[in-house]
UniProtKB/TrEMBL annotation:
Lineage: Bacteria, Candidatus Macinerneyibacteriota, Candidatus Mcinerneyibacteria, Candidatus Mcinerneyibacteriales, Candidatus Mcinerneyibacteriaceae
Residue span(s) of domain Fluoroacetyl-CoA-specific thioesterase-like: 27-118
Pfam families hit by this protein: FlK
Cited InterPro entries: FlK (IPR025540), FlK-like_dom (IPR054485), HotDog_dom_sf (IPR029069)
Highest taxon, organism lineage: Bacteria
Annotated protein name in UniProt: Fluoroacetyl-CoA-specific thioesterase-like domain-containing protein
Segments passing through the bilayer: none
Length: 128
């Protein structure tokens, strides 16, 4: 089911477009919810490469700082590292850095759990 190993790393680059920003302070900056969504997306896409088509991962825990603002059109790199694998539970350490000067924008921990897609969907349908 899973062919992922501890200490494996990934990087994913993004450009901050208008859809990822908020302007409630008078200037468009990366919103925290959008940053978290990119972290989850990057983590899931990386882990998915090691799973068969019957499995995927779901996020189960997030704990992140948001240390610096980013403007629209800034580029970021999300850097992740698998720290623990216990059965289907995967823990990652992640940093978000500004590509231009490597300033840390965010850092934290993210947990994902491997699930069988069909079982997951059936369980949700049966809860209705």
């Amino acid at each position: 089911m899973i062919n992922l190993k501890q200490n494996q790393k990934f990087k994913k680059e993004y450009v901050i477009d208008e859809n990822l920003t908020t302007d409630h302070i008078g200037i468009k900056v990366l919103s925290t919810p959008s940053m978290i969504a990119l972290i989850e997306k990057s983590s899931n896409e990386f882990i998915q490469k090691f799973l068969d088509n019957k499995h995927t991962t779901v996020g189960t825990f997030i704990e992140f700082t948001h240390e610096k603002p980013l403007l629209e059109n800034d580029r970021i790199i999300i850097k992740g590292k698998i720290t623990t694998i216990e059965g289907g539970k995967i823990q990652l350490d992640i940093k978000v850095v500004k590509k231009k000067n490597k300033t840390i924008i965010s850092r934290g921990k993210h947990h994902r759990h491997v699930v069988n897609k069909d079982k997951f969907i059936n369980n949700l349908k049966n809860e209705k």
